[in-house]
Every structure is written in C-alpha cells, then in structure tokens.
Amino acid sequence: MIETLVGVLDAAIAGFRVALLAVAVILAAVCMIDWMVRTRRLTPFGAVARFMRASVDPLLRPVERQVVRAGGLPSSAPWWALAAVVVVGIVLLSLLQFVRGEIGFVYGSLMGGPAGVIRLVVTLAFEIMQFALIVRVLHSWIPIRPGAWWWRWAYTITEPILRPLRRVIPPFAMIDITPIIAWFILGLLQGLIVRAI
Question: Where along the chain do its domains lie?
Fold first, then answer.
C-alpha cells in the first residue's frame, strides 16, 4: 500500500514538473507579448494588442496594482506575474517532494522495529523545532499580529532554545543570528542522537 502511494506521488511529481514547465513557457510567451504591447514595441492598434488588452490585462490588474503600489512600472506587471507563478510552482513541487520523502521515511522507520520508531519520533521532534524556527524568522519579516495562534506555538517551542543563545551570542550588525545557530545546533544534535540509536 505505501509503495503504491509513493509510486503515485513519484508519478504526480514528474507530471507536475512537466506541467509546471509547460505553464511557465506559455506564460513567459504571453508575458513577453503583453510587455511588448505595454511598452509599444508592438502596435497598440493591432489585433494582438486588442486581444491582450481585452483578455490578459484584466487578469494582470491585481499584480499591476501591487507593482505600482511598490513603486514599480505598470509595464513590468507581466514579469512579476510570471515570477509569482514560478515561485508558487516551485513551492508546490518542493512540498510534494517533502511529503513523498516523509512518507518514505515514516514507512522505513516503522519497518525498522522499535529502534526505527524511536528514530522516527526523534527526527519528527527535531523537524518540528526547526519548522518553528522558520516560522519565527518569517514572522520577524512579515507584519503579523503578535498574539496570533500561528505565531504563539512557534514562540513557545523555540524560546527555551533561543533565550540561552541570546545571552551568549550578541546580535551581528543589528541582526539576531541565534535562530540560524539554533538551526545548526538542532541539526547536529539530531544527527548525533539518530546515529546513537
């Protein structure tokens, strides 16, 4: 059953990779044409320009508003849209690969007997702590309400690790590097404990 699920995920990842590449190529061509229309490299009165203004530009208006709000040129909206689609595709592909790897790891650990189960629990505990560190770092970059539940759990898990490190390690050029150091310490401890089991 698990082997079948892993096989399905492998096929889905391969198919998604091909589909993502096809979408990126098509979107790149559309963005290039739209950019050429917006910058008057193509005649604004032709059939292509009319089609772009009627069909593509309404889809790009939200992106264009964000670009202009950030101080960019409206003509660069197609390229930002392309970059967003590529980034979202890469994130989804990475997420699928992560899920596939975790399923394979859990299955292999469960087949490894009691030592495998202990190895699984230790690895998952360390991965949760490392994920909580990522959430804390992202929270420092993105303005989110401090009392939000998706923030509090990460703070609760990581603060006992980061507080002692902050006492020893000063900020580096006004940047708190303790999450980075904690990440490497957790990875080192995880490797040592898993090898000892």
Answer: 1-111, 114-197
